[in-house]
Design goal:
Blueprint (H helix, E strand, L loop, with lengths): L3 H14 L9 H7 L4 H28 L2 H20 L4 H33 L7 H27 L4 H7 L1 H13 L14 H13 L3 H18 L5 H7 L4 H25 L5 H21 L10 H20 L6 H29 L1 H25 L3
Helix pairs in contact: 1-5, 1-6, 1-8, 3-4, 3-5, 3-15, 4-5, 4-7, 4-8, 5-15, 6-12, 6-14, 10-14, 10-15, 10-16, 11-12, 12-14, 13-14, 13-16, 15-16
Length: 392
């Protein structure tokens, strides 16, 4: 059996490389090439999210109850199959089928890998619950966008010549992740089932872990809002750059800059987040993101479009701190389920909003920015205020 530290390193590699989607810069042009408009793109993402919603908590419970390692491996293998199907899509229906399978795959892996990380760091950490676990999470958040920059570079070379090939090559990191998932150790406290009926057992986790704990409830809201405000706009990046007057040859540079900003945001989180109260870790990036979006909605140009990188920086910051705060409030045996509950709530926000915001962008791409501000500004304000009152 490999050592605990080696196993943790392999989990980190798996998390980092499976966050690198080679085909990201060409996805919107690919959708357009098979006849999809901005509204259908948003609808396909809503369908993907609905698949996640249906399976998030059950797959998290399965990981906690039986094996996080196997669930993680199954998720990576499912992503390989989904991306290969995606590469052969010729119409909206084909994309929907691939999105559903990809949603199932993500549901199996997204709670399992973070819970495996927590299980390893709990055994290794000698500095307290916000020591090694925080450093590992922020380190992952730093390196994932670097891996994404490499992936974007490859996609920028392959994509313009052959969209389908770029999407198929995107399956390679997930296949490597699948192999690594088979090697890592199974660590972490296991869920002891208290009801014969799995649905009752899942509900008991919600009832005992989330409902009585106001801090955990609002940290889940913060996770959902922080992830959604950056993710709903990711599909608008290429259209925004084109509307700002950038030539198509420079669009890839914009994606690379956004990924670099994500690394910067995670680096700032690693250094400064432990010095801040939890409500400040949430509120400061929210203010920066909303301010940048307001400027771009008023004046979208080749000069202001680069403010979009603040969304990347905000995403990097949130990726490094929010899920760790949730896991530190959660009992060990329910780690995957808690992450899945947070993901489910996030997707409940994301599913309708990505369609609505994409639909607004169909009228005028700047309306995507305006719609996002109108929806998220009150959510971010209320959440930050609640976290402050709870003295988090």
């Amino acid at each position: 059996m490999i050592s605990l530290r080696t196993s943790l390193k392999l989990i980190q590699v798996e998390i980092i490389i499976t966050g690198a989607l080679i085909s990201m810069p060409i996805m919107v042009p690919f959708y357009n090439s098979i006849g999809m408009d901005q509204g259908q793109i948003g609808l396909s993402q809503t369908i993907f999210t609905l698949a996640l919603l249906m399976l998030n908590i059950p797959t998290g419970w399965i990981a906690d109850r039986f094996s996080r390692k196997i669930c993680n491996a199954a998720g990576d293998l499912g992503a390989v199959i989904a991306l290969l199907m995606y590469s052969q899509a010729t119409c909206f229906f084909d994309v929907v089928v691939a999105e559903i399978l990809f949603g199932v795959a993500v549901a199996f892996s997204q709670g399992a890998d973070s819970a495996l990380t927590k299980g390893h760091t709990d055994l290794l950490d000698k500095e307290g619950k916000y020591g090694l676990f925080h450093r590992i999470n922020t380190t992952n958040a730093i390196w994932r966008p670097i891996a994404q920059i490499i992936a974007l570079t490859i996609g920028g070379i392959i994509g313009p010549a052959n969209y389908s090939l770029a999407i198929a090559v995107s399956a390679v990191p997930y296949f490597i992740g699948f192999v690594l998932s088979l090697i890592i150790r199974e660590e972490g406290e296991r869920r002891v089932q208290q009801h014969k009926n799995p649905l009752k057992d899942m509900w008991q986790i919600v009832r005992e872990t989330v409902i009585p704990n106001a801090k955990l409830r609002w940290l889940i809201v913060a996770f959902a809002a922080g992830g959604s405000i950056t993710h709903v706009m990711i599909w608008a990046l290429t259209p925004l750059m084109i509307a700002a007057g950038l030539p198509m040859q420079v669009v890839g540079v914009g994606w690379v800059l956004n990924a670099a900003a994500t690394t910067l945001g995670a680096m700032l989180a690693k250094r400064y987040a432990p010095r801040l109260a939890k409500w400040q870790r949430f509120a400061i990036p929210a203010i920066v993101i909303l301010s940048a979006m307001a400027i771009m909605s008023i004046n979208l140009s080749v000069y202001t479009i680069w403010l979009y990188s603040t969304l990347g920086a905000g995403y990097g910051w949130y990726a490094g701190v929010l899920i760790a705060m949730i896991q530190n409030e959660t009992p060990g045996g329910n780690q995957s389920t808690a992450v899945s509950i947070a993901g489910t709530f996030s997707q409940l926000i994301y599913a309708p909003l990505v369609w609505f915001i994409s639909w607004a962008g169909n009228i005028d791409i700047k309306y995507s920015l305006i719609a996002t501000i109108i929806i998220f500004a009150p959510i971010m304000f209320i959440t930050a205020r609640k976290l402050k009152r709870l003295k988090t």
